Amino acid sequence: MIQSSVQPADILIVDDTPENLRLLSSMLEETGYKVRKATNGKQALKAIEAQSPDLILLDILMPEMNGYQIAKHLKSIDSTREIPIIFLSALNDTMDKVFAFDVGGVDYITKPFQMQEVLVRVRTQITLREQQKQLLDQNKKLQQEIKERKKVESALRVYIHAVSHDLRNPVTGMLILLNNLLAKKSSDSPSTLTINTNIIEQMAKSCDRQLNLLNSLVETSDTSLQGISVNCQPLDLVDFTQQIIAEWQPVFEKNRVILDTELPSSLPPVQADYHQIWRVFDNLISNAIKYNPPGLTLTLSAEIISEKKSKSKNYTQWIKYTISDDGIGVKPEEAEELFELYKRGKNVGKIKGLGLGLYLCRQIINAHGGKIGVIANKNSGASFWFTLPVLS
C-alpha cells in the first residue's frame, strides 16, 4: 500500500472488457491509487475532459474508437499532450508495439498481463510523471523569477537614465554661467572675479534644485523604480514661469532664443509638486532648443479650462499650459508615440538623446491627474501642452 500525505495519483483505465477493468482497478486501488474506469473512447474522453488523470491504461482493440485513435486525439491537444499512456493489448506483433509508441505511448503491456509487472510499470510512469510536474513547476518559478528580475533591471535602467537625463539641463545652465563669468575676468587681475549677488543666488537655487531632484529620484527608486511620487502644494504658475526663465536665460542667450510670454496675470494657483513640474518645463524647453536651429521663438502661454465631472453637473477647473515653438515641427503620425519610453522622432538626425524626457513628462503629469499632448505640424513648429488642477 502506498503511504503518502499527498493526494494519490489518478489513473484512468480504458478497456471494453469488464473483467480486465475489475482486476486492474481492484489491484491499483489496493495499492493506494485513485482509479477511474471507462469502457469506450467516448467515455474516456469525457472523463479526461472532466479531470485530467496522471496516467492512462489504454486498451487498443475497442469498438468505434480504438486506443490508437484516442491517443492521437489526446496528443493533439495542449492540455492532454503530456499525460502518459500505457497501452494494454493482446496484440504482440512488433509493428503494433512500434505504432503504439509512434502515437505517443510511453509503455506497452501485452495481455494476458502479470499483476506485478503492471504495478512496476505503473509505479515507474507515476514517478516519472511526478518528476515531470516538479520540473514544470520549477521551470515556471524560474521563468517568473527571470521575468521579475528583467522588470527590476529595466526599471533600474530607466531610473539611472532619468538621473543623468534630468541633471543635464541644470548642469549645462550653470556651466554656461560659469564660462560667461570667466570670460569677463579682468586682464589686470586674472585671479579675481567680481560677481553680482543675483548670479550667486541663481547658482545656489540651481544647486538646491539639483539636490531636490536627486532626492526625489532616490525616493522614487525606494518605492517603485518607474513610479512618480508627488508632493502637491499651491503653485503660482506666473511666478514659477519667471523663475524658469531666469534659470534658462543663459541658455536662451547662447542659442538666440526669442521668448514670448503670454500668461494672464490673474491666473489662479494650481495644486502641483514644484520640483516635479520643474522637470516637465526643463524637458520641454530643452527639447525645443535641442531639436531646432538657433534663433527659435519660444512662446509660453496658459488658459483656464473646465472639465465636467463624471455623473455630476459640477465642473473641475484646470490650467492648460502650452510651450510652443516655430521650429521644424513634428510629424503628426509620430506625435502620440513620442511620449512612449525610449521613443524619439525620426527627424532628430544625429542629435544625441535617450527618448526619455517626454516619457518622464507624461509620468509626472499623470501623477498630478492631468493630461499631456502635442499639437504637431511638420515644418511649422510644435506645441506641447499639459494640464494641472486649479487649487480648489
Automatic annotation (TrEMBL):
Reaction(s) catalysed by this chain's protein: ATP + protein L-histidine = ADP + protein N-phospho-L-histidine
Residues recorded with modification 4-aspartylphosphate: D59
Annotated ranges, domain Histidine kinase: 162-392
Coiled-coil stretches: 125-152
Name of the featured protein: histidine kinase
Taxonomic source organism: Lyngbya aestuarii BL J
InterPro entries: CheY-like_superfamily (IPR011006), HATPase_C_sf (IPR036890), HATPase_dom (IPR003594), His_kinase_dom (IPR005467), HisK_dim/P_dom (IPR003661), Sig_transdc_His_kin-like_C (IPR004358), Sig_transdc_resp-reg_receiver (IPR001789)
Phylogenetic classification of the source organism: Bacteria, Bacillati, Cyanobacteriota, Cyanophyceae, Oscillatoriophycideae
Pfam families, A to Z: HATPase_c (PF02518), HisKA (PF00512), Response_reg (PF00072)
Domain (Response regulatory) ranges: 10-126
UniProt keyword terms in alphabetical order: Coiled coil, Kinase, Phosphoprotein, Transferase, Two-component regulatory system
Record GO terms (molecular function): phosphorelay sensor kinase activity
